[in-house]
Amino acid sequence: MVMEPRKRISERALKVWRIYGIFYSALFLCLAGGIVALAIAFNWPSWISIISVLLFVLFLYIFVVRFPMLRWKRWRYEIREQEIELQHGVFVIKRTLVPMVRVQHVDTKQGPILRKYHLSSVTVSTAATVHEIPALEMEEAEEIRLSISKLVRVADDDDV
Amino acid sequence: MMMSKTRRLHPIAAVIHFIKHLKDLFFPFMVILLFGGNGLSLSFWEMLFTATFIILSLVIGVFSWLRFSYRVEDGELRIESGVFVRKKRYIPFERIQSLDFSEGIFQRPFGLVKVRVETAGSSGSQDAEAVLTAISKAEATAIQEILTSVKNTGRVETEAIVEKPEWVYKITISQLLLLASTSGGVGVVISAVIAFAFQFDELIPYEKVFSELKGFISNGLVFVSTMVFLVLLIAWFISVIGTMIKYADFTIKKVENDLIISRGLLEKRQLTIPLNRVQGILICENLIRQQFGLGSVYLESAGGTANEDHSKALILPIMKRDEMASLLTQLFPDYHFNPTMVPSPKRALKRYMFRHLVPSFVIVILSFILFRSWAYLTLLLIPFSVIWAFQTHKDTGWNLHDLQLTLTYRGIVKNTIFMKKNRIQTISIRKSFFQQGQALSTVEATVKSGLGGSGGTVSDIEEIDSIKIYNWYKHGA
Questions:
Q1: From B390's CA, which of B43, B118, B346, B404 has a CA 20 to 30 Å away?
Q2: B428 to chain A: which residues are within 8 Å by CB?
Q3: pLDDT tens digits along B109-148
Q4: Taking CA atoms, what residue in A is nearest to B430?
Q5: What is the value of ipTM here, to two decimals?
Q6: Whether the model pTM is above 0.80
Q7: In this structure, what CATH number is given to the domain that contains residue A121?
Q8: Which residue among B425, B436, B474 sits closest to A129, beta carbon to beta carbon?
Q9: Residues A85, A36: one domain?
Q10: Residue A78 and residue A85: Cα distance in Å, rounded?
Q11: Using CA of residue B73, residue B76, residue B80, residue B86, what is the dihedral sign?
């Protein structure tokens, strides 16, 4: 087996993803609430309300507790002199190898929630693909961006 | 310096612009007329509207021709254009990737060509960096020669260099026939005919036709199936003719470091692909062609426009699989075209079955719930998916040969893609929970194609094989 990439993303990513999960659940809450309201208004059998409430609770558990945990556990990355290696995925584990010579540019991005937790995401673009490392400590993200752009300039191209 | 004086397009360009303008506005215009008014009977205002519309298009056409000028100056192609907004575009010859010539039905009678100027920077849009709609062939060749001389010597020269192709391939009539008759264009034609027919809802009394048809149908199933067969035959015939016109005279030449492809009967198109921009080579075999051992070859090339023609260029429309290798080796001596593919293991077949059968089962179950009586027809999907799964599994494989990765996989058609290590942008391996238990993995390789990415994905190969490919791609391997 190939070695897993060494580094993990910030533990605060969990908090951020839970907040995202709560947002998603809010949407589902509207749906479930709507169904319950309809069931009361039109005297539908009570099992409809019960099932939609249960589904909502299940949804809440999956998106707020389970998925963020699994996702965080799986997320690994490693930046070496000649290449970047990523691993992520909840059901399907995906590992990607991006050679430094193929990297075209690196961006750091930060939304309001990430900023609140002092986090930032790094996006690596090649000529054909885009890869994102979510939720890194801001300093680390900055450092990675600088070091990748430095390595990209150094990396020798065996192209021609 | 040659051609430094300002030039205009041939006046026919005004007509072409006018017609293009009309065409662009035709559909919104029809929508307004059909839905805004009462059918096709025009009121005075609608008539006035139509007349204004046509006259305006004509005026714009003429003015855009008047305002369009181009010249070659200081090693740049300088184009000035624009009716309301004046645009000046100066393109250095070094930056021009290719000039594509095409002759449409308007250009042909006057011996003119349309020239599309492609640069690496003309990204982001469907359009080329610049288009000269109609200029004489002599001028076009003159520009081409300047481009060639700049590319060769780094400066603008005025002497003409005669192109001498090192390698030529031309489609034969029998190949053209074969290409046309096995292309999948039938479906497109049928749907176009249906879509077209329903556009005239208001003109053709469908209900009346149908009620009369009912009489016919009760007369017998034979009649209906004959009609269906006839429609299919005619659609197939149209698609054959269409393909033949499109690919007539298909010729591919290698001139120095470029491939020049030309094709077409009514509209002659020419396309230039610099060989150093080739990212990968793709062989496609659709189900029918695969049975006859036939396939077509495409090149994935970088840069250019988002135009499909440019990112995936057809270089051999149809050819026997076993003749392909020797021909392609002449063009791309550093590629290896006869690799022995390592197949997906037998135990992976289950997963292929699963993937193909689940959607069919869903459709079958849904249609039984919804339609009952007709649902039995959907049962046909199941043997079909089983066969499809077998075929897809059979058509999966990979090979590593020095610095080359070859993947075969089937979506709707069977694809074989040949990629060089230094052209691959990224490689990913994926493993789902279920694959994990069986030591299987999915490998995906991406190359640059046009403005985006393309490449290949092989599903459910041995996990150790996927790691082999991954490690091969790793630095210092």
A1: B404
A2: 94-97
A3: 888 888 888 776 544 445 667 888 889 888 888 888 888 7
A4: A94
A5: 0.84
A6: no
A7: 2.30.29.30
A8: B425
A9: no
A10: 5
A11: negative
